[in-house]
Design brief:
Structural class: mainly alpha
Number of strands: 0
Strand content: under 5%
Shape: elongated
Largest sheet: none
């Protein structure tokens, strides 16, 4: 008769009762599974993924069962295992990249006629040139130079309120300009 290499494996094979070294783990899972599954569902969008996540977290808890000193804090331990497992899954997710010969066309607006764009540009400048010098300076600094209201006020040596009101009046005049009517 040959002796088995692993005596614990042969002992398990000869037992008639299933091998369950942690009966307290089984009772814990049976009692707390609905609550823990709700927690897992809050971490994933898919109920099947939540079940898989809970299964993985419970497997990690099972492995560490003997090392857990305070069994009153098991819910916290399992919740942390759920969160860590979900974070690991998120970090490992595969991002599909496909290479192609040409870059795809942008889905933006189609480019207009360059002549029409130039005509619009000229009409805008003619309308801006009709504004009083102070309003024109504020519109140019705010919208063409992209300065903030505070920066515009500082450059021109006026208050921020003055910039706000003058720009508002200037934009009102630009809206009423007949040359810019086709743009509206």
């Amino acid at each position: 008769m040959t002796t088995p290499v692993c005596t614990s494996a042969s002992n398990v094979a000869t037992r008639s009762v299933p091998y369950a070294p942690y009966p307290s783990f089984a009772s814990y899972v049976k009692a707390r599974q609905p609550v823990l599954l709700r927690t897992a569902r809050s971490l994933t969008a898919n109920p099947s993924d939540a079940e898989d996540l809970l299964q993985t977290a419970l497997a990690k808890t099972y492995v560490a069962w003997e090392r857990i000193e305070d069994h009153r804090a098991l819910d916290g331990y399992v919740r942390r295992a759920l969160l860590n497992t979900r974070t690991s899954q998120w970090r490992k997710r595969k991002v599909d990249e496909f290479t192609c010969e040409e870059l795809p066309e942008s889905a933006g607006l189609p480019a207009g006629d360059p002549a029409e764009q130039q005509a619009l540009h000229d009409a805008m400048w003619r309308a801006i040139m009709k504004l009083p010098a102070r309003q024109r300076a504020m519109v140019v600094l705010r919208y063409y130079e992209d300065l903030s209201e505070a920066q515009t006020a500082e450059v021109l040596g006026v208050s921020i309120g003055t910039v706000k009101s003058a720009v508002s009046r200037a934009l009102g005049k630009l809206r009423e300009d007949p040359e810019l009517a086709p743009v509206r």
